[in-house]
DNA sequence: GTGGTCTAGACCACG
DNA sequence: GTGGTCTAGACCACG
């Protein structure tokens, strides 16, 4: 796997794991239906606790990113990731709010901010070949 | 004050406080040099512990938003908020990354995302009359 | 641990703790990567409140002396302590200034003063075997 | 007066005042027998509390820097400042200890440190013409 | 009155 | 078990 964790970060490990896997999906390293390692093997691989992997997987399942079959194991959701709904967009807005608030204080212009976002979007497109 | 906390939220109270004060600065409800309530009075006002307020104030001081002045008490930094530097922008990028990553997965287009950001920027401009 | 606090001193306990740990590093009793006791166990050991230990640890982390690691717990920074930069030297100068100022008033000669410093340096070298 | 205070500093104002006056003596801007402003006038001059000036003066008197006559007012001690005794030197050593300790950690060499001290000494000599 | 420091005690998220 | 957060309450130095 391509998982890269920072054990010194304030961000909990399970959250980092979730982010990394979502990033894998965004970059199409992980496609719908693709298998993910079992809780046990991923934990062993990265050298973290079973609970931690499990917590990340449960959250990803909850959010519609993965399916956990008793037997087939863990797979990226075969139907694709659920499209953004109103709830997602409102949560997204809530998360963006403090970032934009502080940026305004620090004299980051709207143009700069949008360009930064745009740049991040393009990084995904490049990796997926969707340019 | 205009502080509005959500005690049910997972976001720690001191973090919410920080966000609210930064928002106040962004919306120019708080201007450079303006006085902020003392640790004690704000704590009493909101009905939280003074240590919690103190933690928020210490962080804001660290980040250059406020000064804790021997005589004047706590004030919004009279020289204005430090402009975004490389460190800030790189942290900002790190925070935006997972948001954009998940948005890509959920088929939020770049245009939609930028528009959402733009809309948030305009909310600040409207409130400050900087339109 | 080798921590030795003076509860009668005007110096806050958390500051004393910081000094003691830095001294431990200077004397190489604590080496990069070495584990430090947890907040709780150190507090219990010394017989002080865990918040006091925590305050010291947070400061030491801030200053690059220690890492608070998700898995390993608290350790002396494995990459070694950050070398003195301009900021450190200017702060050091500010701290030395009043000491030298008063010494000048009290007719301590430059030679005496330097010798005193030199002696203190040698105490560290002796303990570390770096003579 | 040449007093220069930093109200944002963590250093209490009365301590800053003490340092400034001692510095004045070290630089011979203030000579034995010279008059100092009254508590009241100095406080008014700098714009600080009477108590604060008084506290600084009491400490300076205690340390042998000044005399406080009921009628003649405040003067730099006419007999000159008491020479450093064992107590002073031991306190000085205690204050230098953590500075050197941290410097050792941060790879400041003995030579660099001594040179910094030397430089500070020379700043006093230059100002007094004692070069 | 104000911030700084310290304590005792509690709950929770994380691993 | 560990650090993070929060509370209630207390004393002190400072101004």
Automatic annotation (TrEMBL), chains A, B, C, D:
Organism: Virgibacillus tibetensis
Family matches, as PROSITE patterns: HTH_GNTR (PS50949)
Superkingdom classification of source: Bacteria
Location of the HTH gntR-type domain: 11-79
Protein known as: GntR family transcriptional regulator
Coiled-coil residues: none
InterPro entries: Tscrpt_reg_HTH_GntR (IPR000524), WH-like_DNA-bd_sf (IPR036388), WH_DNA-bd_sf (IPR036390)
Swiss-Prot/TrEMBL keywords: DNA-binding, Transcription, Transcription regulation
Gene3D superfamilies associated with the record: Winged helix-like DNA-binding domain superfamily/Winged helix DNA-binding domain
PANTHER family: GNTR-FAMILY TRANSCRIPTIONAL REGULATOR, HTH-TYPE TRANSCRIPTIONAL REPRESSOR YTRA
